[in-house]
Amino acid sequence: MKALLVTLVANTLLAACTEAPRDTASQSSGVVAEAPSAGDVRDGMAWVPSGTYLMGSEDATWARPDEGPAHIVDVDGFWMDVTEVTVAQFAEFVEATGYLTTAERPTRWEDLAAQLPPGTPKPGPEAFEPGALVFTAPSGTNGLSDVGQWWNWTPGASWRAPEGPGSSLDGRDDEPVVQVSWDDAIAYCEWAGKRLPTEAEWEWAARGGLDAPTYPWGNERIDTGDVKANSWQGRFPVRNDARDGFPGVAPVASFAPNGYGLHDMAGNVWEWCADFYRHDAYATAARDNPQGPATSLDPAEPHIPKRVQRGGSFLCHDGYCSGYRVTARMKTSPDTGLSHAGFRCVRDE
Ligand SMILES: [Ca+2]
Ligand SMILES: [Ca+2]
Ligand SMILES: [Cu+2]
């Protein structure tokens, strides 16, 4: 997060829901012994069957360059949490282990400097305090390329105080935990006997058994027909109409699941995947259960190694980023906490 902060100050950051605008504008509870079928649910996890699909997109209307080339991928079946990991679940983990999240720890200058372009001046003391990035709607914007207009480095922000000092978790047990870094997500998954999904698994699961849908629910535009997911309606980032009922994070499973029984695969909070992010990862991706590239490269911030996030958030807007498309990719440094990002876990058997 600290590297993000510094680059934020330098106005070069492209963080979640902060991409430059595009040019164009209830689960069943099956009792499962063996050989699960698609959508069976056990211990809060749904079975996602094995399959072969065309991962990524080269759609001229929608896709960004990092979503191509589309390529054939084989994925084995796996269990996936039907919801994003909740505040209550994460609290249980912290209580059991005493785990301290990235956002709750101070940063050392040596660690920060390693992620910054050589010669970057040492930032002020607040950059080293425990904290995270909090979204605050600005009253106006000067263009949309400077994401520092709505992302604010907030000392004291953490999963316990997602919007910073003064915010709390009262009544929010069923919301997805946010302000968790990739490292925090890995620690939780290990404790739970699970793991993070690969990017290929995440995209396959998001499709919910549909044939190459644009969204987890199909192809209908997000603001057409029934409310489909927690996203942003209005004018990002200054006017939030919340026609979906939630100006911010929603309790998990507030919206209908996809075909595999998975809730909020579109919107609510971004979800960490296991993979390193590379903009060109698909050009050399393996076909058989790809695990992602061996190294990270985001040309916009080449010094910062990043991991993949998927699914979009309550900040994603149809006319801005539409991060809730099943093929849309996001990249974030693994030590970053954000108020619109969480995760869910998977398990092989
Ligand atoms: Ca919303
Ligand atoms: Ca989500
Ligand atoms: Cu977005």
Structure description:
- This protein is an alpha+beta fold and 349 residues long.
- It has a single domain, classed as paralog of FGE (formylglycine-generating enzyme) (Alpha-Beta Complex).
- It is 12% helix and 15% strand.
- It contains 5 helices and 14 strands.
- A 4-stranded antiparallel beta sheet has the order 1-2-5-14. Strands 12-11-10-13 form a 4-stranded mixed beta sheet.
- The longest helix is centred in the first third of the chain and has 11 residues, at 87-97.
- The chain is globular.
- Copper (II) ion binds at residues 17, 312, 315-316, 321, 323.
Compact summary:
With 349 residues, the chain is α+β, with helices and mostly antiparallel strands. It has helices spanning 2-9, 87-97, 109-113, 182-191, 199-207; strands spanning 41-42, 45-48, 51-55, 71-75, 78-81, 131-135, 151-155, 234-235, 239-240, 270-276, 307-310, 329-332, 341-342, 346-347.
Descriptive tags:
four-stranded antiparallel beta sheet, binds calcium ion, four-stranded mixed beta sheet, binds copper (II) ion, paralog of FGE (formylglycine-generating enzyme)
What's the helix-strand series? HEEEEEHHEEHHEEEEEEE
Low-confidence stretches: 8-16, 18-27
Give the biggest beta sheet.
4 strands, antiparallel
Average pLDDT, rounded to a whole number, is: 91
Q: Give the count of helical stretches.
A: 5
CATH architecture: Alpha-Beta Complex
Strand content: 15-25%
Shape: globular
Helix proportion range? 10-25%
Count of domains: 1
Task: Name the structural class.
Answer: alpha+beta
Beta strands, count = 14
The rounded distance between the terminal residues' Cα atoms is 34 Å
Question: Could you tell me which ligands this complex binds, including any ions or cofactors?
Answer: calcium ion, copper (II) ion
The level-1 CATH class: Alpha Beta
What is the fold-level CATH name, i.e. the topology? paralog of FGE (formylglycine-generating enzyme)
The order of strands across the largest sheet is 1-2-5-14
